[in-house]
Specification:
It is a single chain. The protein is an alpha/beta fold. The chain is about 50% helix and about 10% strand. The chain contains eight helices and six strands. Strands 1-6-5-2-3-4 form a six-stranded parallel β-sheet, sandwiched between helices. Helix 1 packs across helix 7 and helix 4 runs parallel beside helix 5.
Length: about 210
């Protein structure tokens, strides 16, 4: 009985630790700061909640501000904002574009991906739809390792800048989102193994045009 229980626990540990170990290994040494980031063509901002009036939530605003700082510092020449626009009444991507344009980034430089329903979808679409090969990702520090690991696994040479946290790291919300990374890592490794096909479509030239624009 004890041996069987030990075997079950070992399997649980391996299943749980394996995906997290993969994420940690793939992202090791690739998280930096705005000031120390090597120049990359594009910053990718992952979506998060927006309010009913189109205002970015504190978490999303923090991610967007990091992208703005990268652009203002000359570390990137274009920004891809990728979020959930699955219904007519909910549109993360437009809110993200409007926020960055409102801060002063030229409209042509802020490209929207309206089918970035999760991190895996956003990374696959960044590579296959928008043709991005190198990028710096902006997000909170708990999410960056998974985002980097996924993007690298699907062909994007990705680095990360964080962490632009909000609210404080000792808040219940931060702890909750951090703890949620464990099952998220498990899901994303399954997506990679099965090569899950996200919503795709024709090639979009928005990033190419943004990089060519003065």
């Amino acid at each position: 009985m004890l041996r069987a229980l030990a075997a079950v626990l070992l399997v649980v540990l391996l299943v749980g630790a394996g995906p997290t170990g993969y994420v940690v290994a793939m992202s090791a040494g690739r998280i930096t700061t705005v000031e120390q980031a090597e120049p990359q063509p594009v910053a990718i901002v992952f979506g998060a909640s927006v309010y009913a009036d189109g205002t970015p939530s504190p978490y999303l605003k923090a991610r967007l501000d990091l992208a703005y700082d990268l652009y203002a510092a000359g570390r990137v020449r274009a920004v891809l904002v990728t979020g959930d626009n699955g219904t007519r009444s909910y549109d993360e991507t437009t809110a993200m574009r409007q926020y960055l344009i409102g801060r002063g980034i030229p409209e042509v430089k802020v490209v929207g991906d309206y089918a970035g329903f999760d991190t895996y979808d956003s990374c696959v679409r960044a590579r296959r739809i928008f043709g991005i090969e190198r990028a710096v990702l902006t997000s909170q520090s708990y999410h960056l390792p998974r985002a980097i690991a996924v993007c690298r696994s699907v062909g994007v040479d990705a680095w990360g800048v964080g962490d632009g946290f909000a609210p404080p790291k000792d808040s219940a919300q931060w702890v909750y989102y951090s703890a949620r990374e464990w099952p998220a890592n498990l899901k994303v490794v399954w997506d990679l193994i099965t090569q899950r096909e996200p919503t795709l479509g024709r090639h979009e030239a928005g990033i190419e045009q943004a990089l060519q624009a003065p």
